[in-house]
Amino acid sequence: MPRKSLVARLRKGFIPLAAAASAPLFFAQNASANWISTEHGGSPNADAIHSLYLILMITGLVVFFLVEGLLVYTLWKFRAGRGHEAQQIHGNTKLEIGWTGGAAVLVIILAVVSFFKLGEIRDPPNSDASGYKTTTIAKDPGTNQKIPPDGKAMHIIITAFQYGWRFTYDDGDPSTPNVYAYRDLYAPTNTTVLLDITSQDVIHSWWVPQLGGKFDAVQGFHNWTWFKIPASKAGSVFRGQCAELCGRNHANMTLSVHALSPADFTKWLADKQAQLEQAKVEGAKQRAVVDAGETLK
Amino acid sequence: MAAADVTTKTTEPTLPRVPLLTTHSVERELTGWRAWVLTTDHKKIGIMYIVTALIFFVLGGTEALLIRLQLGAPDNTLLDPATYNAMFTMHGTTMVFLFVIPIMAGFGNYFAPLQIGARDMAFPKLNGLSYWFYVCGGVVFYSSLFFGAPEAAWTSYAPLSDDAYTPGFGTDAWIFLVHLTGISSLVGAINFVVTIANMRAPGMGWGRMPIFVWTILIYSVMLIVALPVIAVAATLLLTDRHFGTHFYDASAGGDPMLWQHLFWFFGHPEVYIMIIPGFGMISEVLPVFSRKPLFGYKAVAAATASIAFLGTLVWAHHMFTTPSPTAVLVFFMIGSFLIGIPTGVKLFNWIFTLYAGAIEFKTPLLFAVGFLSMFLIGGISGIILATFPIDWELHDSYFVVAHFHYVLVGGAMFSITSGLYYWYPKMTGRMMSESLGKWSFWFMFVGFNTTFLIQHSLGLDGMPRRIYEYGDIGHWGTYNLISTIGSFILAFGLLLSMINAYISLKRGPIAGPDPWRANTLEWFIPSPPPVNNFDVVPRVRSVEPLKDIRQEVAARSQTVEATPSATASA
Ligand code: HEM
Ligand SMILES: [Cu+2]
Ligand SMILES: [Cu+2]
């Protein structure tokens, strides 16, 4: 029976194949640019996506080599002109039930592993004690919002528009104005930052590859995600870009996330606040001039 | 087997399953161009479908090459953003609505009736209508090139596709294309279902129907399920654009998510509509060239049906990054994983069809094997993308572009090419050149993988899709250059096959009725078949009626090789 010898052959081949398939893992660890696995390193959710991706990719590579190997072997072994006759086999119920079951088991395992990893990717952790001071986050019912166990985080509202990003730092205190910025998002390290993403026109998509997955900005909806940059990354800049076609300038709807140590971030925020105050004072002065019926210089 | 049962005259009263044709008058046969334009012959309509679809394929391919040229280097300025957006919108729309779906209708038109032993489709005039609706859809769509091309991608997401953000004729042309090709496919699909249900040869129960006919049936049912939904969605978009409604406009209480749900409720079945007839072609080609029956006929038919069923339940796996609750994401992830099971089953059935066979490496087989090896890659990357936490990272990146091209080019297009080489002799009476075919295969295989394998890496390295330019980031420049070079190798390979098809029309060796020693009824009659297809319809006793006939003839004449209707072809 050719079938038996084949199964044995597959079994023998499995270990070297698995080894070959996991070789890219080692490259992935060293490569600076990513060609074999997802970008990561800026936030635990991106790291968890990366490790889940590796599990699926290696499983996929093993399947790939097994099936492709079987195919190539079959093509070679049973090519015409070697003096054999085609065997008139119509099927084999046992074998067919076998690979249906095998595929089902594999798929179930992958699903279980994914659910196992889901929490790490979806649910924000607490900020570290050394992080920037956080505020209690209000529940946003009817959305996919997830809040850290201690209920506290930094809250940034992201409003996407054609073609840019507005970041509003919600300090939880309605009596003081919120600091806001365009295109460049400054964020403290060791701090869980919750992002509340929406759009004021067409659909856009928030994506900073090293800080985790992308989340669509849709007018009328709030889409929540988070990141938490480790202290070692203070000073880094993470590149990001709109990932949903939003019009002619979609390609240029870029953004940067600048990681600052909590101390530097405090300084940056104070600077911004001062600038806002300054602008308010300037504005009031100018308004006074206009109100007095004079023209602005 | 009783010798007298091998063939049976249709005029015998013992054949109630073949409807008797009556006519009120006999029309003179048309000649010249009118023979084509006014025809209701399923074979002519099939050829017109195939040729028209190939013309659109050349247009869509040209757009693809322009896209690739623009992306060949960082900060390239070959195309401006408006043109670039128009190019990928037209490329995607053309490939889906004007190439793959209609060319499958073309092969179905030509071969489904022949394979079931019918003399035409059930409604020949509707069949012509369906073709002309398709042509109108294509013409309306391409006319937009002169009035302002669509720019909102083949998915036309609202509110980007709304008049506030994309004014002008382009998106309207897209909507009309959806309606016109939709009517075409709907009419065609009903025609297929009726034909297949009612006009099968005596003895051909459901369990003896060729797999290609099964897949055309399932393709038709899926079209009937999915098309009305996109028709509604596009109509709502039309009224939003021109008649003051706000179905998709959040600023006026509408819901942009509604478009995505409606679109993908059609759009996901659509990708199976594109690939399932390809499954059918592969299931015809592999047994013929390995000289073995299809391994697990019932399993393959059942797996196809369950893929189609599950395929209507997973649409929101295109929406993992939208604001949706986790429970929804989990449901659509599990559904998508489940599709992996019947798909895996089919892949193994196909490989085991080859196993222990006597494989002849003719061009159709090469393309079929190319299909197997690349569809596998698309399937694996599909499972990775169906894992929604991973899709959060990879959605709308070049990883996705790579994934669906492995399915659509490596899958659908390679199966179409395989089918073309396989059935060309039947349609034209001549063989295509084997050596040119093999060259074409290798250029296409190498070119395809060069173009699209590296795009996985581009996506992993963070490049979003649908961007007309990019800076000098990471390895994007190098990867994109490799991909662009690959696309021209692929295009050259395709060109070889087109040249092959063209020159073989006049110069190819005469094929005879059954050049491949195949198994299904279309090979029972001369190549090309006469207008009425069958003078006698054989009684079908298995899935491989022609093999039975060949064996019977061989048994009677004591020769190994036999061509049953050789006299008819001369
Ligand atoms: C001939 C070789 C082909 C090449 C080089 C090619 C290249 C491309 C590229 C580079 C894109 C991405 C454009 C972007 O996101 O900016 C794209 C998109 C697409 N391609 Fe192809 N393609 C080819 C064949 C096909 C075929 C045969 C099909 C379908 C059967 C197809 C279907 C699509 C679709 C649906 C899109 C999405 C369009 C959109 O984003 O709206 N392509 N193609
Ligand atoms: Cu965008
Ligand atoms: Cu889908």
CATH topology tier name of the domain at 135-285 in chain A: Immunoglobulin-like
Helix percentage of chain B: 55-70%
| Average pLDDT of chain A | 87
Quickly give the structural class of chain A: alpha+beta
Shape of chain A: elongated
Radius of gyration of chain A: 27 Å
- Radius of gyration of chain B, in Å, reads 24 Å
Percent helix of chain A: 40-55%
Count the E strands of chain B: 0
| CATH architecture annotation of the domain at 135-285 in chain A | Sandwich
Characterize the quaternary organization of these chains: heterodimer
β-strand number of chain A: 11
* Low-pLDDT segments, ≥5 res of chain A: 1-7, 24-32
Strand content of chain A: 15-25%
Brief characterization of the structure:
The complex is a heterodimer of chains A (297) and B (570). Chain A has 297 residues and is α+β, with helices and mostly antiparallel strands.
Characterise this structure.
The complex is a heterodimer of chains A (about 300) and B (about 575). By secondary structure, chain A is an alpha+beta fold. Chain A has helices at about 1-30, 45-75, 95-120, 260-290; strands at about 135, 150-160, 165-170, 180, 185-190, 195-200, 205, 215, 225, 235-240, 255-260. Chain A has a domain at about 135-285: Cupredoxins -  blue copper proteins (Immunoglobulin-like), CATH 2.60.40.420. Chain A is about 40% helix and about 20% strand. Chain A starts with a helix and ends in a 6-residue tail after the last helix. The model of chain A is unreliable at about 1-5 and about 25-30 (pLDDT under 50). Chain B has helices spanning about 30-35, 40-70, 80-115, 125-145, 170-200, 210-240, 255-290, 295-310, 325-355, 365-385, 390-395, 400-430, 435-460, 475-505, 545-555, 565-570. The model of chain B is unreliable at about 1-10 and about 565-570 (pLDDT under 50). Chain B has one domain (about 40-565): Cytochrome C Oxidase, Chain A. In chain B, helix 9 (about 325-355) packs antiparallel against helix 10. Chain B is globular. Chain B has 16 helices and no strands. Chain B is mainly α and about 575 residues long. The chains are: A alpha+beta (about 300), B mainly alpha (about 575). At the A-B interface, helix 2 and helix 3 of A face helix 3, helix 7, helix 8, helix 9 and helix 10 of B. Protoporphyrin IX containing FE (HEM) binds near residues 451 and 466 of chain B.
